Amino acid sequence: MAKKTSSPNLDRRDFAKIVMTFLGSIMGAIVGLPIIGYIISPALKTQEVDDWISLGALDGYPIGTPKLFSFTRTKVNGWERTTNSYGVYVVRKSAAETTVISNVCTHLSCRVKWDEEAHAYLCPCHDAQFEITGEVIYGPPPRAMDEYEFKIEDGNILIHLTEG
Ligand code: FES
Question: Which domain holds residue 19?
Answer without folding.
Answer: 1-44
